[in-house]
Structures are given as C-alpha cells and as structure tokens.
Amino acid sequence: xxxxxxxxxxxxxxxxxxxxSCAASGLSFTWYDMGWFRQAPGKDREFVSAITGSVPxxxxxxxxKGRFTTSxxxxxxxxxxxxxxxxxxxxxxxxCAARRVGSSRYSDGANYNHWGQGTQVTVSS
Length: 125
Known about the structure:
Order of helices and strands: EEEEEEEEEEE
Radius of gyration: 13 Å
Largest sheet: 7 strands, mixed
Number of helices: 0
Helix content: under 10%
Structural class: mainly beta
Shape: globular
Strand content: over 45%
Distance between the termini: 40 Å
Mean pLDDT: 96
C-alpha cells in the first residue's frame, strides 16, 4: 500500500538547477525519515541526502553538500531535493526512500523499507 513517486527529473546543462519531488502515500509520513539515493549506469547506488521525520533535520553526502538542499512538507506528504550547480557527475537515476524513524545510519540504503521507481537526471558537460 505504501507508494513513493518521484518527479522533476530531466535534462540540464552544467551549472543548472532541478527540483525533485517525492510524493508519499500509504504511510504516516511524520513517523518516517526520508532519503534520496542515486545510481548511475554501471555504478553502485549511493547516498545523496536524508531528512528526519516530524522535526526535520537534513543530512548530505560530501559530494553534494552546499549544492543540494532537502526539505519536506509534512501536511503534503512530500519531500523535495533542490539541486543547484549541477555537474555531469550528478547524472543518475534518483530514488526516494522511506524508513521508520530510528538511530540507524541515514546513508545506508539497507535501512530504508520503501522505495520509489526513480527519476532520471542528466547533466550535460
């Protein structure tokens, strides 16, 4: 019954911006931490960002810190990833993920129970 739907991906030139959205349904949204992960062709999935539940607290991978911003709108059951100063290395499928609030590592995808289908982000050089 849980569903996560990403949107907002597309094509952008180096230095451009995109805003990804993840709409959640079928869960008590404020009881879940939300994460963003990405995977490029031939590479492993990597952590991008996460934001905690009812009292939002963001976390970022070093590779995106200062360029990406994660936020959430709990009444709308939606989490966002605002991406600026995009680089070709940011090209990947971006996935939204959800987990029950807890003390486990935000950067470990194995700790997330629900995943969206992903949205493609392509940054041209």
